[in-house]
Design goal:
The chain has helices at residues 11-14, 27-44, 62-74, 92-104, 128-135, 149-160; strands spanning 19-24, 48-50, 79-84, 107-112, 140-143. It has six helices and five strands. It is globular.
Length: 178
């Protein structure tokens, strides 16, 4: 934690707070990672309160689903964690959840899963909106292989205090899965 000093309301004092977190991920591809993540860091270590969608909303209306997740799940959180696997960049719901997070100016933390793919230049393939804003200085990148309770807690806090002027949220929303 080099570079941080204690100050009331600063990073060190905020490490004592149990944050409300929304976890965004590709349900069909990365459910096993999401389950392990929630079991370890929300239930066992109690790092955060999980605000993710517990059960799928019963609707085929995509506008309604987007509104429901935005209002019921993301609105009450302080940070969204995006679990980035092989198919995550192609998922419209993940893009919508990232957009809502940025609209609310909540923290954004990207966790690169072991299944995440790199392109020919060695760059992780993640949702474009996520890459735009985290690479611009809002939010944070982490590797699944380097997670620990303390590292995750610090990552969440750093994501939450990211400078909001660094948010890039100008892309059109993804209309369908790729």
């Amino acid at each position: 934690m080099a570079g941080y000093q204690y100050s009331p309301g600063g990073l060190l004092s905020s490490l004592q707070i149990k944050r409300k977190v929304f976890v965004s991920f590709h349900h069909a591809g990365d459910q096993i990672y999401r389950n392990a993540f929630a079991a370890a860091y929300s239930e066992t270590y109690e790092i955060f309160t999980d605000r993710s969608v517990a059960e799928a909303y019963d609707s085929e209306d995509h506008q309604y689903l987007r509104w429901k997740i935005r209002q019921n799940d993301i609105r009450g959180s302080s940070c969204t964690i995006v679990l980035c696997g092989a198919q995550t960049p192609l998922r419209k719901h993940v893009d919508w959840e990232i957009k809502a997070t940025l609209d609310f100016k909540h923290g954004l933390l990207a966790i690169i899963l072991p299944t995440c793919v790199k392109d020919a230049q060695g760059t992780w393939l993640v949702p474009d909106r996520l890459a735009d804003t985290v690479n611009n200085g809002f939010g944070k990148w982490m590797l699944w292989s380097q997670l620990s309770p303390q590292i995750l807690k610090i990552g969440i806090e750093e994501a939450i205090v990211s400078p909001i002027e660094k948010i890039l949220n100008t892309r059109a929303m993804r209309k369908r899965n790729g």
